[in-house]
Q: What sequence folds into this?
């Protein structure tokens, strides 16, 4: 763990009731912070998020974008750092927090920095922008003071699929200066009163929240846009935030980070299909055009929040749009492979010409039924709305009229070669 | 969990399901037990049919030493082909386990997408400690920590004519438990090969027989097929009694052994055999999951652990 002494602490408690205790705790914590900082600076110069601190023969040099001070004695420096009105203080607590987070170069650290719009660390010399921002908008990374103002107030918010993640500076007892805490909610609960939400603080609780959709049906695809709302994780430490996100949307942080660094290892359809064995050996026989239909059926934003980055094969793109999700999809998932097996088998069937006697409205009704099922709208069609083709009474009437006792439409026997 | 440079991670790999939300419950339960014991810097579940997929789990870890334990019953298609392929253990070859079907311990390989060392362990189902779990299952279903005298024990596996290792794992534990002499009779039975579980009472003379299915999770086989095949019930939906009397024999049907809490210990033992530093956690987990009873300990001794 990263040394957050406040795990499980109720950060929503009224901190002002405890001002005296907090003040003395903070003084001690500040002394620790400055000790750590000076030890570090005596070993090697610090250059981080705009803060520069260097031990020279003439004393310390401390600089921020606001200015530089040189020739400081240790005592001068301690005084400057202890002064919370001095902007150096923010830079130093910011440095201290990210020291505690550690994990240079890891997805965890990059994600936590993305949450508060800190500059990307992995691309030195290009700190002007962070990539992969909300709704595809490019956004300028924030300086320390630009982050600290909202962090001490309502916090900074990011969306990750259907998650709304808010980071704030910790204000409760026992936290170190600069400590962040993270809250996670469903995006639909962004404005909800905390008292109306079910509160959690253990990352693994997220598993139960993500198992079923609002109708209680199992969600085999974690990135389906069917996450239930009505809960909140509050006051999480950074590690626990990442674990929580990992339980809700597994491996999305790791793949996002790879994409940020330009090394996302995409496996396209054909190589993924050809890798399969056993009962999935057949999926590479799915025709090229069927792969298009499959992507349109399964891999669009309305069905999955991942942004499809795989194509038919390298240099042979699918025409279907890959979507706008914040995290990439780097290869066809197990649900797509399982469905592809079914389609690969179905697509081996010969096409035949059928003759059915239907009125124009009946043909239209079959299309309306298909649409309603494909768009998941069956439940929205009201009991008595007989103007809708996919209304249950309308469907039952059509069946009574046009389907025989063997289930054949218009009595046309199709039992010979069907496998559906 | 914050990982330092020599950190170790555990990945429990399991089948999972697109259709049944309960299939992954045992995997999560055992992973949580091990998380709480604190032996690993990181603990992850990964699945063939759920997420994170085998394919993408290793990249979610910061640790350099990674122990992968398959929550599968036998050495076969999944443990020898699918899992190593999907984890990108490119140097893998089933020969690396040097096993005749029940001996796999571990192989150290590189996961090529991340360049990290992976200790790929044999399945939990063939570990010696699994015999203890089967016995513990018998204890919990009968509510008798001394169960054995006057009892027969049937260890039931899927079995398949396609892979001899499937039956070997079942027979292996049946043999080991038989050798302890704790139960009057011990028999390995199968769903898809002889001797079949349908005829369970034909294979026992005891009035009481505990039936323990060696499956990772409860599902279609353990909750529908086997109870109906044995004649515990005509319709699984109406349930069955424990014990239920079939042809004058009381059948104590236990449900999948993989749901037994002590399974977490087998997972840890697998990782320990592969070099993971988990000794303290093994003690804690055995204590917490009921694995330190005298019977179990002495049995482990007798069976050569």
A:
């Amino acid at each position: 763990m990263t040394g957050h002494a406040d795990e499980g602490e109720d950060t929503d408690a009224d901190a002002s009731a405890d001002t005296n205790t907090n003040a003395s705790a903070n003084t001690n914590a500040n002394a620790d912070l400055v000790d750590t900082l000076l030890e570090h600076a005596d070993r090697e110069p610090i250059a981080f998020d705009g803060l520069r601190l260097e031990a020279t023969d003439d004393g310390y040099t401390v600089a921020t974008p606001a200015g530089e001070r040189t020739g400081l004695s240790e005592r001068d420096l301690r005084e400057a750092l202890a002064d919370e009105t001095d902007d150096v203080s923010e830079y130093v607590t910011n440095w201290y927090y990210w020291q505690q987070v550690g994990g240079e170069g890891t997805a965890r650290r990059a994600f936590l920095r993305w949450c508060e719009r800190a500059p990307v660390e992995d691309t030195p010399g290009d700190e002007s922008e962070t990539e992969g921002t909300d709704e595809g908008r490019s956004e300028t990374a924030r300086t320390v003071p630009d982050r600290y103002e909202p962090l001490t107030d309502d916090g900074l918010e990011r969306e990750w699929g259907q998650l709304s993640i808010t980071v704030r500076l910790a204000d409760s007892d026992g936290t170190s200066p600069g400590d962040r805490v993270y809250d996670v909610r469903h995006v639909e609960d962004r404005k909800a009163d905390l008292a109306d939400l079910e509160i959690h603080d253990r990352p693994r609780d997220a598993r139960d929240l993500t198992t079923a959709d609002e109708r209680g049906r199992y969600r085999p695809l974690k990135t389906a846009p069917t996450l239930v709302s009505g809960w909140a994780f509050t006051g999480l430490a950074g590690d626990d935030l990442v674990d929580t996100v990992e339980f809700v949307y597994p491996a999305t942080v790791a793949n996002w980070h790879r994409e940020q660094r330009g090394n996302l290892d995409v496996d396209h359809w054909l190589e993924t299909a050809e890798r399969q064995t056993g009962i999935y050996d057949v999926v590479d026989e799915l025709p090229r055009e069927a792969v298009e239909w499959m992507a349109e059926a399964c891999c669009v934003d309305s069905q999955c929040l991942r942004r499809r980055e795989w194509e038919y094969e390298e240099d042979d793109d699918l025409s279907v749009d890959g979507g706008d999700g914040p995290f990439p999809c780097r290869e066809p998932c197990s649900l797509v492979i399982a469905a592809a097996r079914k389609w690969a088998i179905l697509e081996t069937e010969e096409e035949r010409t059928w003759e059915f006697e239907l009125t124009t409205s009946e043909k239209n009704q079959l299309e309306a039924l298909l649409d309603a099922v494909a768009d998941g709208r069956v439940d929205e069609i009201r009991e008595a709305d007989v103007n809708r083709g996919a209304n249950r009474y309308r469907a039952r009437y059509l069946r009574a009229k046009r389907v025989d006792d063997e289930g054949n439409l218009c009595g046309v026997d199709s039992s010979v070669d069907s496998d559906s | 969990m914050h990982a330092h440079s020599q950190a170790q991670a555990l990945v429990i790999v399991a089948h999972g399901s697109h259709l049944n939300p309960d299939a992954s419950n045992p995997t999560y339960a055992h992973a949580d037990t091990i998380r709480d014991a604190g032996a690993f810097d990181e603990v992850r579940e990964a699945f063939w049919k759920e997420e994170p997929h085998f394919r993408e789990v290793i990249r979610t870890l910061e640790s350099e030493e990674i122990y992968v334990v398959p929550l599968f019953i036998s050495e076969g298609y999944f443990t020898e082909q699918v899992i190593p392929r999907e984890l990108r253990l490119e140097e893998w070859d089933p020969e690396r386990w040097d096993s005749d079907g029940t001996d796999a311990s571990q192989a150290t390989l590189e996961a090529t997408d991340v360049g990290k060392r992976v200790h790929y362990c044999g399945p939990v189902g063939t570990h010696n400690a699994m015999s203890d779990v089967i016995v513990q299952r018998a204890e919990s279903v009968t509510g008798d920590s001394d169960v054995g005298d006057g009892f027969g024990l049937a260890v039931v596996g899927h079995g398949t004519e396609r892979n001899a290792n499937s039956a070997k794992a079942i027979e292996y534990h049946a043999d080991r438990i038989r050798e302890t002499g704790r139960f009057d009779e011990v028999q390995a039975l199968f769903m898809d090969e002889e001797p079949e579980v349908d005829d369970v009472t034909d294979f026992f003379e005891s009035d009481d027989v505990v039936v323990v299915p060696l499956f990772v999770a409860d599902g279609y086989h353990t909750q529908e097929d086997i109870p109906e095949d044995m004649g515990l019930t005509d319709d699984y939906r109406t349930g069955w009694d424990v014990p239920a009397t079939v042809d004058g024999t009381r059948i104590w049907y236990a449900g999948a052994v993989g749901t037994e809490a002590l399974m977490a210990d087998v997972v840890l033992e697998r990782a320990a055999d592969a070099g993971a530093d988990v000794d303290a956690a093994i003690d804690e987990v055995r204590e917490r999951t009921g694995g330190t009873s005298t019977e179990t300990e002495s049995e482990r001794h007798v069976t050569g652990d």
Observations:
- The beta strands of chain B are 8-14, 42-47, 65-70, 106-111, 116-121, 151-157, 185-190, 208-213, 244-246, 249-253.
